[in-house]
Amino acid sequence: MAIGDVTQKKLLAKALSATNTDSSITGAVTKTTTITSITLVNLNTTTARTITIYGYGTAAGNTIAVITLAALATEILTGLDYVLAAGEQYYFKQDAGTDVNATVMGIEEVVS
């Protein structure tokens, strides 16, 4: 690939857990990664779940969003422009269990 080439891709597709380091996106080497959409689906039939998204670290000060999903609910975040340089990370977790599925779409642009 040449500098400036852009590829659309799925950056993450998995069930979240209560440990934020289990589900993360890392900026690729020689590329800039941009998160463009996040889809969250709570498959629990009776219990709401709270999802926390962190940018560039997992400390409370790095919290980007806290989203509560009702049982069997879906949240789709679009029009995003979260940019990660090589090695930078975004982290995702839910409050308990593993019943929220996350799919993150984005683009990678070759920068060197």
What is this structure's SSE topology?
Blueprint: E1 6-15, E2 24-26, E3 31-42, E4 49-55, E5 63-69, E6 74-77, E7 82-84, E8 89-94, E9 100-110
Antiparallel strand pairs: 1-9, 2-8, 3-6, 3-7, 3-9, 4-5, 4-8
Q: Any idea what the CATH architecture is?
A: Sandwich
What's the quaternary structure here? Answer: single chain
Order of helices and strands: EEEEEEEEE
State the CATH class. Answer: Mainly Beta
C-alpha Rg, in Å? 14 Å
Residue stretches low in confidence (pLDDT < 50, at least 5 long) are none
Tell me the fraction of residues in β-strands, as a range: over 45%
CA(first)-CA(last) distance:
10 Å
Number of discrete helical segments = 0
Largest sheet: 5 strands, antiparallel
Count of discrete structural domains: 1
- CATH superfamily, called what? Nucleoplasmin core domain
CATH topology: Jelly Rolls
Q: Classify the helix fraction into a percent range.
A: under 10%
Mean residue pLDDT: 96
Q: What is the number of beta strands? A: 9
Please state the structural category.
mainly beta
Shape annotation = elongated
Report on this structure.
The chain is mainly β. Helices cover 0% and strands 56% of the residues. It has strands spanning 6-15, 24-26, 31-42, 49-55, 63-69, 74-77, 82-84, 89-94, 100-110. Strands 1, 3, 6, 7 and 9 form a five-stranded antiparallel β-sheet that branches. A four-stranded antiparallel β-sheet has the order 2-8-4-5, with no helix packed on it. The model has no long low-confidence stretch (mean pLDDT 96).
